[in-house]
Write a structure and sequence with these properties.
about 0% strand; about 100 residues; about 70% helix
């Protein structure tokens, strides 16, 4: 995916923000791994990997973070690949 500077910067910031918001739900190694994908401009891989990691333990996800995943995955055209694993994660309020 070829991105202009503004889109690249936007995705970088939004994905880094997502990693920060998920900080207490990720291991330090997972956060570092996601940052490495973001640094390499592998935005789709970063988002897919975050969703996979969260789904492995059915980690509860707040609705606002789930919406962030949905918006980012829609922008990248990978909604099914990201949202299917997140479907295994209960809403945080449901826990």
């Amino acid at each position: 995916m070829v991105l202009d500077f503004a889109t690249h910067s936007d995705l970088t910031g939004r994905l880094r923000g997502l990693v920060i918001l998920l900080g207490d739900r990720l291991t330090p190694e997972q956060a570092h791994g996601a940052d490495a994908y973001i640094d390499a401009s592998e935005f789709g891989v970063a988002l897919e990997t975050l969703a996979d990691w969260l789904s492995e333990d059915a980690t509860p996800i707040p609705d606002d973070i789930r919406r962030d995943f949905e918006r980012l995955s829609a922008q990248m055209g990978i909604v099914e690949r990201v949202m299917r694993p997140l479907g295994l994660c209960p809403a945080e309020a449901d826990v």
